Amino acid sequence: MTSTSENRMPVDPELLGFANEFKRRREAAGLNQAQLARLVSVQRSYISHVERGRTKCRRDFTMRVDRALNANGELVESWDELVEKIKSTKYPTYFVNYPKVEASSALLRGYQTMLVDGLFQTEAYARFLLPHEEDFQSRMRRQEVLKRIPPPVISVVMDESVLYREVDCPKTMRDQLEYLIELSHRDRINIQIAPMGYYRGIRTSFAIATLPDQRQIVYTQKAYGGETTTKPLEVELTVESFVTLQAEAHCVKETRALIRRVIDERWT
Known about the structure:
Layout: H1 4-8, H2 13-28, H3 33-40, H4 44-51, H5 59-68, H6 74-84, H7 98-103, E1 107-112, H8 123-129, H9 133-142, E2 153-159, H10 170-184, E3 189-194, E4 206-210, E5 216-222, E6 225-229, H11 232-248, H12 252-266
Parallel strand pairs: 1-2, 2-3
Antiparallel strand pairs: 1-4, 4-5, 5-6
């Protein structure tokens, strides 16, 4: 049984991303932890530690697991990405841990104060915000999570001012808001608009990723960029903030009507 003190230890979100990929591939191969452990000559507890992000396994071990799971080198590639981190990704330093976790999450929640959430941005909207091609392509890769089968449940609240803040030109805004309406009709996507106003304790944009095993990782936007955390108290406070915003926001149906009205009155 895992000790309480171990459960409370902070875990590197980058390790959690690899851990979830490791576990997903084991389960897809139809093996339990003990069976895989026997195949690669380790204790079951070591497999458990890897899958909970409590240890960074060696590359030669990952190669043995990759062969045992018939992963065709893809698990080793994930390990290489884990080790390379900033060098092998194009995300800003402060954001480097979150996209990998985001891609393997079961539930994604977020609040945006200034701009349309990155997962929901059209190409034109994103390209205007991200003039460097590498940054733009990174944004597009993040959106591939929407095509996952099944996709994660995604619930996003955006400040009403996002609908009125011009990015690029009226056509870009019109197309972007039309796309939000389209997305809002998809299964497992919930988009809500919070009326402009003051919400106690809420000062910035944030995102919450929940992994299939219910571990949660928070990304919070800061003046210098942002930070990622798994600290229980910080996660708890962020989740409470999101619940408050959801309660104050327009429901999904009202949000669609509001977006349509803004398109007609401002961007047409």
